[in-house]
Amino acid sequence: MFDISKLKFDENGLIPVVVQDFYTKKVLTVAYMNEESLKISMEKGLTCFYSRSRQELWLKGETSGNYQHIVSITVDCDYDALTIEVIKDGPACHLGTDSCFSTEIYKADNAPKEFKIDELYKLLMERKEKMPEGSYTTYLFEKGTDKILKKIGEESTEVIIGAKAESKEETVYEIADLTYHVMVLMCHMGITLDDIREELGKRHIIDHKVKQEKMQ
Questions:
Q1: Mean pLDDT in each 10-residue stretch from start to end of the chain (216 residues)?
Q2: Which domains are seen in the chain, by residue range?
Q3: How far apart (Å, rounded) are the C-alpha atoms in residues 45 and 28?
């Protein structure tokens, strides 16, 4: 067990904390803890911060229900800052956004375009809610489960054909098509990316435990 007395709290007895989403690694918020709130966080497994404006402890989610379940706490090389990875129950920001960091103030002109599967999921959900005319995604939602499943079956076959032909380019292309149609099904059924991440996480934990047991 780490001795928290080794941490370097500032002159006000505080240490900055960067909170990250365990699954996406997105920075959710930056807050402060004192020794008491850190101990509470470790005891409860929930983030508890110190409010500098109110000068009091606050357990994240106690009022909103948007608790942050701690997966790990890591200290930096100088022992004066923490990173906490969490699985969140809801928005991290008091404004109702997923992260407190949502307003971009600068981006390089030559910045590479970054694809985020979460953004694709968000776009598909918007299509489901607004059902814009002329959209292929709208068409799939209108046709319903059977049509979506048929397309998944067709794309699965295309993946197999590409792989059997040992064509990496074709297989990648067809896997992308399959992924898109599976995500449409997810949106149709109300399945989120976090649901899938959580399930894969459970399997990873079980696999890790089995490996440890075999080593004993």
A1: 92 98 92 97 97 95 94 97 95 91 88 84 96 97 98 98 97 97 98 91 66 60
A2: 4-88 (3.10.20.810), 117-207 (1.10.287.1080)
A3: 17
